Amino acid sequence: MQDFPTHLSATGEGLMASLGKPTRYHFETLEELRSYLENVGDGEVDFSAIPISGMAESFHYDGKGKVVTRLDDNKMFDNIEDFLCYAFQCDDEGYPHTEYVDVVSLS
Question: Which domain of life is it from (predicted)?
Answer without folding.
Answer: Bacteria
